[in-house]
Design a protein that fits this description.
The chain is an alpha+beta fold. Helix content is about 30%, strand content about 30%. It has one domain. The strands form 2 sheets. It has a 5-stranded antiparallel sheet, with helices on one face. Strands 6, 7, 8, 9 and 10 form a 5-stranded antiparallel sheet that branches.
Length: about 190
C-alpha cells in the first residue's frame, strides 16, 4: 500500500503565515506609497496655486492702466494702496475671458488667511474706493499668513501707503504663505 504524499498541517500553517507576512508588507508599502503620492499631489497643487497668483499679480500690475478719475477732486490717478491693500485699474481679459477695464482691489483677509481679489467695471466718475460696492470677490491665494505692499516713490524711498497723484515706480509685494516666505516681488508700474 502506498502512502499518499501531501503537506502536513504544520507545513500548511507555516506557508499561510509567510503569505500573511508578505501580504502585510505589501499592503503597508502600497499605503505608504499612496500617502506619498497624495503629499506630492498636494504640494504640486499648492505650487501651481502660488505660481498662478504670482503671474496674476505681475501681469495685472505691470499692465495697470493709469486713468484719471473724474471726481472733481483734482482728477487723481486711479491707483492707491496701503500696507495690506492695493487698488488700481487694469484689463482682466485673461482672468475673466471677456474684455473691459476693471477696478481691482487686492487685500489680505486675516480671518480667512487669504489674498483676496475684488473687481468691478471701472467708472471714472466715482472715487476708486467707491468702485467696489457691487464688486465680485474671489480668492487669489489661500493659506496666506501675511501680505504687505510697499511703494517706491521717485526719490527712491519705500512707502507703506500710496495716495499720490501719480503711480509709484515699483510695487513691492511680500507674502508669507503656508510656512514659507516668498521672495519679494518687485513690479514696475506703468507711468501716467
Amino acid at each position: 500500500m502506498t502512502r499518499a504524499r501531501g503537506f502536513t498541517l504544520l507545513e500548511v500553517l507555516i506557508a499561510l503565515g509567510l503569505i500573511s507576512i508578505i501580504m502585510v508588507i505589501l499592503f503597508s508599502s502600497l499605503r505608504t506609497a499612496s500617502k506619498a503620492w497624495d503629499a506630492v499631489d498636494r504640494a504640486v497643487y499648492r505650487l501651481d496655486e502660488e505660481r498662478r497668483a504670482q503671474r496674476f499679480l505681475n501681469d495685472r500690475l505691470s499692465r495697470a492702466v493709469m486713468l484719471r478719475l473724474k471726481t472733481g477732486r483734482g482728477n487723481p490717478v486711479a491707483f492707491a494702496g496701503d500696507d495690506e491693500h492695493l487698488s488700481f485699474v487694469t484689463s482682466l481679459f485673461e482672468f475673466l475671458e471677456y474684455g473691459g477695464i476693471y477696478a481691482v482691489d487686492l487685500y489680505y483677509k486675516a480671518d480667512g488667511k487669504a489674498l483676496m481679489l475684488r473687481f468691478a467695471p471701472f467708472d471714472p466718475s466715482h472715487a476708486l474706493a467707491d468702485q467696489f460696492d457691487q464688486a465680485r470677490e474671489d480668492t487669489l491665494l489661500e493659506q496666506v499668513d501675511s501680505l504687505h505692499f510697499n511703494y517706491l516713490d521717485k526719490r527712491g524711498n519705500w512707502n507703506d501707503e500710496w495716495h499720490e497723484n501719480r503711480p509709484p515706480k515699483l510695487v513691492r509685494i511680500a507674502i508669507s504663505a503656508a510656512d514659507k516666505t516668498w521672495p519679494d516681488m518687485l513690479i514696475a508700474v506703468p507711468s501716467v
